[in-house]
Specification:
The complex is a heterotrimer of chains A (about 250), B (about 950) and C (about 290). Helices cover about 20% and strands about 20% of the residues of chain A. Chain A is α+β, with helices and mostly antiparallel strands and about 250 residues long. In chain A, the strands form five sheets. A three-stranded mixed sheet of chain A has the order 10-1-11. A two-stranded antiparallel sheet of chain A has the order 2-3. In chain A, a hairpin with a 7-residue loop joins strand 2 (about 45) and strand 3. Chain B is an alpha/beta fold and about 950 residues long. Chain B has 26 helices and 35 strands. Chain C is mainly α. Chain C contains ten helices and one strand. Classes of the chains: A alpha+beta (about 250), B alpha/beta (about 950), C mainly alpha (about 290). At the A-B interface, helix 1, strand 2, strand 3, strand 4 and strand 5 of A face strand 3, helix 1, helix 7, helix 8 and helix 9 of B. Bound molecules: ligand MGD (2 copies), iron/sulfur cluster (5 copies) and molybdenum atom. The site of one iron/sulfur cluster has 14 residues of chain A, from helix 3.
């Protein structure tokens, strides 16, 4: 099990649009809610009402500031969960086989019954996608909502991850990234979807859509100037303006 | 070796049952599917069919499960046993609690009902609580609007008969350029996020005007990091440039606005600046076809924007002339405002040009025929795909009313309100200001008030003044201090009651407002006022009754606590009579119903009011035989009728087939529950735009019971009632302001939008703007009791721009003393680059008092977290005239939270944020040490 | 990385234990009977004690046996196998020495090599991690092996070998530190590659995702200890290498030898503490920390 499958039938994953994510944390909490009640042990919280609250979350939203060479700094909200890597180091390091990658869809999962809680898989993940649950002593990670996406007890349209279903701004997309014709693959192609830490060689399935260029209306090059040409010259005053303006009705 | 993997159950049972109700983790009121297992809440997700959220849910909504299980929930009625503020209480029975309340309230009602001040915070049942207060007979009732965003509401309603604040939305499906002024989150939380997502997916542009580049402003394509308080200047510069270039929609202005309405131009006339009207009181225009005067709404009339009218030696000029004269002046040129706004003139022009390009070059037509109120038929609807939205960044300044007006005038000049691609109203709006009620203050001991408390004044004659000219209301709403204070001034209630200005009260009755903490300015001062005693050793505010669901900071300061249910345990009604959940395309309302039963001795507040009303013998709450009229709130929701056929809920009336108008239907709540907790009725297509002037819409609105007859009207670029106040200040008329207010009224109550510097007296040496923003994942103070949410925002640093960090030699995690003319706080700092150079800010309401919310005393909210409120006073610095000047917009009384100016010094790290107030005793203790919440097996 | 005491104890003790077994396997010293028993007992206490200590940081120690299943890919699993085999082989060898006064030298040599192999597998658990550049280099196994050999020699009383190997271990340790200090920078992983936002400009971490702490921060972003790292390195080197060498140069005495061993152990423990505390996981980049 610890070996990675030679290939997977498809590559289910998420595409996250950094141009649209407003950093609302809806996906974080929705994920917490679903995965506390569903797959495996509940995501526990220690000291939930005390000095140093700490809990297990499978998805967290970071934020970064980027300072371009010219112009104002930008703030980018940055959700991060397991990227379901094709070359998942977290799988191969696992001594028990608890960590595995599914053949049918490429989802990387932890079989909690086999997990000894050694933490090695979390060490091997560059993205911080795995958290050892302090109460259950087992490794938790994004399941890509494997218990939703095929769930026949849910209406068809709801067979998507909890975080995707809830995202108010539509910044999260779910689909088969192995199929070049899928909507997600098309989106990745159109928007220049990228890998995180490609140098790690993990070949993440999840992709990130970079923010679009910002702060272009600065008025240095006045291509729009004709739009603002005054209707009347200053000298002729208000009445001339009125006349000229009203001619347009 | 074959690859082996365990089998996973990919189709587990999700829940036993799904119960659909309405979220109340904030006031956005999304539809939720509550998944139940073994009678317990297992998982909450958005309701896909719901008009507000269409399936999505925010972080707070998903965390509702932690709210209904929070250890901070109050458990039983409480009677104070220790001194006020100690937090020492004794649990009592409901019977005793209601008896105490009755014993306090009955005598006041008989002697002088104004001795009761009933203020209801972020109430979603205002039509009900207002009805209760009206029947009680006190003039002192309002909800939180005055300290929240009344500037936005009032400016919108006076200008265009509807406002941004919950009352309208951009046409997300068609807009191509969206400008957002001063919004971090807003009440329309999920719809705005969804809307921004939608337009971004189309590649349309978003411009964010905000000193802080986070959240919506972070995803905006253009960020305009404006100097706080200067939006009015920026907007009027856009108006200047667009007018100058003739990039305005003259046809729209002529037809649908008061631009062509004639104004008395005789400076010596007592009517100077008032509209020329016909005998029916209708404003007059000159008809282009005939060149003659005509009522603005005469069938077939084509109002002329330029022609003036001279009669009896007086020239009457159209509003449009006055606007041109004012806004074409150089004082509004981009170059003249650039420095003050902190936006280069070239950028102002570039943005104006883009607005012009999209509004006019990307205009489009929808093939929808419609007929206007003058009887003219239009083959198509013209889209001007520029839309705007704004909230407290504009309205929480003392010039917010005029700034919001400026923004509406800009929209209207572009012809982009109620057109495809522009800004659209949500029913029951549009609705002209004149058909709203006027405020009432007629008190008769033992009898109801003479009318509704709040409304829209049309001139000095509508102010709520006593014979001696003093304020009739405890909050001084609708006085010369702030004549158009349509939502009251909740932030002044405690301060005024304590000062006995305008008078003393006996009982302060509050619901859902954390007034000893985050919802008050001058928090420490308010705490002192609440605990202050007079020379006889009695509390200056003698009695305080409070209803909260949780162990908030305010609980400790009340004498009697009426513990409320949580939102999943009660009936509620999100009614068209107050703040409904309509969308631009549909009329909608909703309910909450008990999807779980309370496990504590708590009762829904509205149900408690039904009983208390009966005990007090209030006319609306007893039957003829004196028995209790409404068993509980559910009973009221179904059976109350405001007018015959019109009740709190619009759906399934009568035999279940009637909408809007219809008899009481005893099965109404069942129909709502079957339908997912809400009702929606779609607006017919031909009525979907141009609603104020579109007869199809007007007729539909009458059918729905929104009006009794069609109410078409003109947009008020020029707000005549404001001119009436100015005239009074100039000495005209019987109703005269006190002398100390004359100048202020003359300058601020300009009927055409202006910009003025907010009141900076006493601010010398304090030059840095200090703001707050709402975190998307927290609702004011409520979020901190939530085990999941408080991990997101358990402390709040003060964010400083890079420049100020350097200037003060600060680095992340170090501490600064922040001083305002009023007070000081010492807080941790953090650097933010994407921030206006002269602005600092923090998340709102994260700081907590030790002992509140069932948190342990060393919780970061209480040790590191802080409130900016300590720095903001409810009064302006003394002017030496002995008068109490509210820190409010002079027109509406809106609390001016964001006018705060501070100075910053680096200091050694204290043990905890300062001021560190003493802990209060908790009536419920603290929560468990570990959570492993799973209700399934 | 969080320097968990159980893991430090484990790698320190078992490294020394397997080091001693290595020398015993080679017949250095060539002991039998009671003396052999005593030496083997020390080696087993160290090796097994270390292994046991390592289970303390497991979430589910009772499932430890499952860790033997994935030897095809997992160095942790391989370490388990190597340790068990080494202990079994050396038990056979030791039994011969203790009870039969017989030396099956082939068994001894095989056992010695597997003991060393165990140390190698331990080192590979860390070396394999690309996510921790300080560990992800060939010098890591060299360091583990050299320290284990030197410590083993010291315990085995192989004064001459011990002196030389301690000196070598010292050099290797210093090299590991020096290379390690550059490793993150040369790994090519930066905030820009972590976020993919480098194209736009200079990336800086703003707000963390949670103000509450989490497993990742506790486990992988350990910053407190690094402040004193130079001081600790010197102390560690003195205790682990310099002092034992000086003591070895003195006339032999049991007390002196014992002090040398204790000093060495303390030095290795300090070195291992630094090994973890100084190790920067790339995930720290997402938190603006390394
Ligand atoms: N510095 C600064 N201060 C501000 C603002 C700002 O921007 N900056 N904003 C201001 C604005 S706009 C507002 S609206 C106020 C908001 O301030 P508040 O109106 O005080 O809002 P909340 O903190 O949400 O708390 C209201 C109270 O309602 C209680 N509550 C929650 N749910 C229920 C329930 O179901 N039933 C009952 N009975 N009680 C319940 C909570 O426990 C809490 O005690 O803050 C104002 N204060
Ligand atoms: N998640 C969440 N949602 C909420 C609430 C909550 O507590 N949490 N509270 C609800 C309530 S009661 C209210 S009133 C609404 C308020 O919703 P918002 O209006 O979004 O309120 P604030 O968060 O106060 O944001 C004000 C914004 O204005 C900006 N600003 C301040 N001064 C200026 C200025 O001079 N010019 C410009 N252009 N911008 C300025 C600030 O930077 C900030 O981004 O949110 C409601 N929704
Ligand atoms: S993101 Fe981390 S946990 Fe997920 S597959 Fe990749 S390496 Fe494994
Ligand atoms: S923590 Fe569990 S899943 Fe991770 S490597 Fe260890 S045994 Fe495998
Ligand atoms: S896919 Fe499911 S498990 Fe993964 S982050 Fe989203 S909600 Fe969480
Ligand atoms: S829910 Fe969507 S918008 Fe909100 S943080 Fe997650 S990805 Fe971003
Ligand atoms: S925005 Fe969030 S908290 Fe507010 S009602 Fe909707 S889901 Fe609930
Ligand atoms: Mo508000």
């Amino acid at each position: 099990m610890t070996q990675l499958p030679a290939s997977t039938d498809c590559k289910m994953g998420l595409v996250i649009d950094l141009d649209t994510c407003v950093g609302c944390h809806a996906c974080v909490i929705s994920c917490k809610g679903w995965n506390t009640e569903n797959y495996g042990a509940p995501l526990s919280d220690q000291n939930p009402y005390g000095a140093d609250p700490s809990g297990t979350f499978l998805n967290r939203v970071h934020s970064f500031e980027v300072q371009p060479k010219d112009g104002a700094a930008q703030l980018i909200h940055f959700p991060k969960s397991c990227l379901h890597c094709e070359d998942a180091p977290c799988v191969t390091v696992c001594p028990t086989g608890a960590s595995y990658k599914r053949v049918e869809d490429g989802i990387v999962l932890v079989n909690e019954d086999n997990c000894i809680g050694c933490g090695l898989c979390a060490w091997s993940c560059p993205y911080g996608a795995r958290e050892l649950d302090a109460a259950a002593g087992v490794m938790k990670k994004c399941t890509l909502c494997v218990d939703r996406i095929y769930n026949e007890n849910l209406p068809e349209e709801d067979r998507i991850p909890s975080c995707v279903r809830t995202c108010p701004s539509g910044a999260r997309h779910f689909g088969d990234l192995g199929d070049p014709d899928s909507a997600v693959s098309q989106l990745v192609a159109a928007r220049g979807g990228m890998d995180l830490m490609p140098e790690m060689g993990t070949r993440p399935v999840n992709k990130y859509l970079p923010p679009r260029p910002k702060d272009q209306m600065i008025g240095e090059i006045d291509v729009l100037a004709p739009l603002l040409a005054p209707v009347a010259e200053e000298a002729t005053g208000f009445l001339a303006w009125l006349d000229k303006t009203l001619e347009k009705i | 070796m074959a690859y082996q993997q365990p089998t996973v159950d990919t189709s587990p049972k999700v829940s036993d049952e799904v119960r659909q109700t309405t979220c109340y983790m904030c006031a956005c009121r999304c539809g939720i599917n509550v998944h139940m297992k073994d009678g317990k809440v297992a998982y909450i997700e958005g309701n896909r069919d719901h008009p507000v959220n269409k399936g999505v849910l925010c972080a707070k909504g998903s965390a509702g499960i932690m709210q209904v299980n929070a250890p901070s929930r109050l458990r039983a009625p409480l009677k104070r046993v220790g001194p006020r503020g100690s937090g020492e209480f004794e649990e009592i029975s409901w019977d005793e609690a209601l008896q105490i309340a009755t014993d306090w309230l009955e005598p006041i009602r008989k002697e002088n009902p104004e001795k009761l001040a009933f203020f209801t915070g972020r109430d979603q049942s205002q039509s009900f609580t207002g009805f209760w207060a009206q029947n009680y007979g006190t003039p002192n009732y309002a909800a939180h609007g005055g300290f929240c965003s009344v500037n936005m509401a009032a400016a919108g309603i006076y200008t265009m008969g509807g406002a941004f604040w919950e009352f309208g939305q951009p046409d997300w499906d068609h807009t191509k350029l969206f400008l957002l002024f001063g919004v971090a989150e807003d009440h329309d939380s999920n719809p705005i996020k969804a809307g921004i997502g939608k337009i971004k997916a189309r590649g349309a542009k978003v411009i964010g005007v905000n000193p802080i580049r986070s959240g919506y402003n972070a995803v905006a394509d253009e960020w305009v990091g404006i100097t706080p308080g200067t939006d009015g200047l920026f907007i009027l510069a856009l108006v200047h440039v667009l007018m100058k270039a003739g990039k305005i929609d003259l046809d729209y202005l002529a037809r649908f606005t008061n631009a062509p309405v004639l104004v008395n131009g005789d400076t010596s006339s007592p009517d100077h600046g008032l509209f020329l009207r016909d005998d029916d009181g209708k404003p007059l225009v000159i008809d282009r076809a005939t060149g003659k005067l005509a009522a603005f709404d005469k069938p077939g009339v084509r109002p002329d924007l330029s022609a003036t009218h001279r009669a009896a030696g007086i020239t009457h000029v159209p509003v449009f002339h006055m606007m041109a004269e004012r806004y074409l002046a150089d004082e509004y040129a981009p170059e003249a405002v650039a420095e003050r706004c902190g936006i280069p003139a070239t950028r102002i022009r570039a943005i104006a040009a883009e607005i012009a390009r999209v509004a006019f070059d990307e205009a489009f037509e929808l093939d929808i025929e419609w007929t206007d109120f003058r009887g003219e038929k239009h083959k198509t609807m013209t889209g001007r795909p520029v839309s705007f939205h704004s909230m407290r960044g504009v309205s929480a300044h003392a010039n917010g009313f005029q700034t919001a007006r400026a923004l509406h005038v800009l929209q209207i000049l572009l012809g982009t309100v109620e057109v495809p691609g522009g800004f659209r109203f949500k029913p029951p709006y549009p609705k002209p200001a004149e058909i709203h009620p006027k405020p009432h203050c007629g008190v008769t001991p033992g009898k109801p008030l003479n009318g509704p408390h709040l409304g829209f004044v049309q001139g000095p004659e509508d102010l709520l003044l006593k014979e001696d000219g003093s304020a009739a209301r405890i909050d001084k709403a609708f006085t010369w201090d702030n004549p158009m204070s349509s939502h009251g001034l909740m932030h002044m209630v405690i301060s005024n009651a304590h000062a006995g200005d305008p008078y003393k009260i006996d009982t302060l009755f509050m619901y859902m407002a954390n007034m000893s903490w985050n919802s008050s300015m001058n928090t420490s001062g308010v705490i002192d006022m609440l605990t202050d005693k007079d020379e006889n050793g009695e509390y200056v505010i003698p009695r305080i009754i409070y209803s909260d669901a949780y162990s908030s900071e305010m609980v400790a300061y009340a004498d009697l606590i009426l513990p409320d249910t949580t939102y999943l345990e009660r009936h509620d009604c999100i009614s068209l009579l107050d703040r409904p959940i309509c969308e631009a395309d549909g009329l909608a309302d909703a309910i909450r119903w008990p999807v779980i039963e309370p496990d504590r001795d708590v009762r829904g507040f509205q149900s408690v009011l039904c009983e208390l009303g009966a005990r007090l013998d209030l006319p609306g709450f007893v039957n003829e035989d004196g028995s209790q009229k409404f068993a509980d709130y559910a009973d009221y929701i179904v059976n109350h009728e405001r007018k015959p056929g019109i009740g709190p809920l619009a759906g399934w009336r009568g035999d279940g087939t009637k909408t809007g108008r219809g008899d009481v239907n005893p099965e109404q709540l069942d129909r709502y529950i079957e339908n997912g907790g809400f009702f929606v009725s779609h607006i017919p297509q031909e009525a979907s735009y141009y609603k104020p002037w579109n007869m199809a819409y007007q007729d539909w609105a009458v059918d729905m019971g929104l009006f009794d007859s069609p109410q078409p009207y003109l947009f008020q670029l020029y707000v005549e009632p404001m001119r009436k106040f100015q005239l009074a200040a100039e000495g005209h008329g019987e109703n005269q302001p006190p002398d100390h207010l004359r100048e202020r009224i003359k300058t601020t109550m300009d009927p055409l939008p202006i910009w003025y510097e907010t009141d900076q007296e006493g601010n010398e040496g304090f030059s840095v703007n200090a703001l707050t923003q709402r975190p998307m994942a927290m609702y004011h103070s409520w979020g901190s009791q939530n085990a999941w949410l408080r991990q997101l925002h358990g402390r709040n640093p003060l964010y400083l721009p890079t420049k100020l960090m350097r200037e003060h030699g600060l680095s992340d995690g170090e501490w600064a003393r922040v001083t305002s003319p009023h007070g000081e706080i010492t807080v941790p700092v953090m650097e933010m680059a994407a921030l206006n150079d002269n602005t600092v800010w923090t998340w709102n309401a994260i700081g907590k008092r030790k002992g509140a919310w069932a948190l342990e005393h060393d919780a970061p909210e209480a040790t590191d977290g802080f409130l900016l409120n300590h720095l903001i006073h409810e009064l302006l610095p003394a002017k030496g005239d002995g008068l109490r000047w509210a820190n409010s917009d002079p027109i509406t009384g809106q609390a001016a939270w964001f006018d705060l100016k501070v100075k910053i010094e680096k200091v050694a790290a204290p043990a905890e944020s300062q001021p560190a107030l003493a802990p209060i005793a908790s009536p419920i203790g603290t929560g468990p040490k570990e959570l492993k919440w799973k209700v399934g097996k | 990385m969080h320097p968990a005491p159980s893991v430090i104890l484990f790698s320190t003790l078992s490294g020394l234990g397997f080091g001693l077994l290595f020398w015993l396997g080679l017949g250095q010293p060539a002991v039998t009977g009671g003396v052999a028993f005593a030496l083997f007992a020390i080696a087993y206490v160290l090796a097994v004690g270390g292994l046991l200590a390592s289970t303390f940081h497991l979430g589910h120690p009772e499932r430890a046996m499952k860790a033997f299943t994935q030897w095809r890919t997992s160095w942790l699993s391989r370490e388990g196998w190597a340790a068990v085999i080494a202990l079994l082989v050396m038990a056979v060898f030791g039994a011969g020495l203790v009870f039969l006064a017989t030396r099956w030298s082939v068994v001894g040599v095989v056992g010695a090599l597997i003991s060393l192999g165990t140390v190698f597998t331990t080192s590979m658990i860390y070396t394999q991690l690309k996510t921790v550049p300080r560990w992800h280099m060939p010098m890591t196994p060299v360091m583990f092996l050299s320290i284990s050999l030197a410590g083993g020699a010291l315990l085995a009383g192989q004064t001459r070998w011990a002196t030389g190997l301690l000196a070598l271990a010292g050099i290797v340790q210093v090299a590991h530190w020096m290379l390690g200090d550059r490793a993150f920078a040369t790994s090519g992983t930066t905030m820009a590659t972590a976020t993919g936002l480098g194209e736009i400009g200079q990336v800086r971490a703003f707000e963390p995702p949670h103000t509450g702490s989490n497993y990742l921060l506790r486990e992988m972003v350990y910053v407190v200890g690094r402040k004193h790292s130079t001081k600790l390195r010197v102390i560690s080197l003195i205790l682990m290498v310099v002092l034992p060498i000086v003591l070895l140069m003195l006339p032999f005495g049991h007390m002196i030898a014992a002090v040398a061993v204790v000093s060495h152990l303390a030095g290795v423990a300090a070195s291992r503490w630094l090994f973890f505390a100084e190790a920067e996981h790339v995930v720290g980049l997402y938190y603006g920390k390394r």
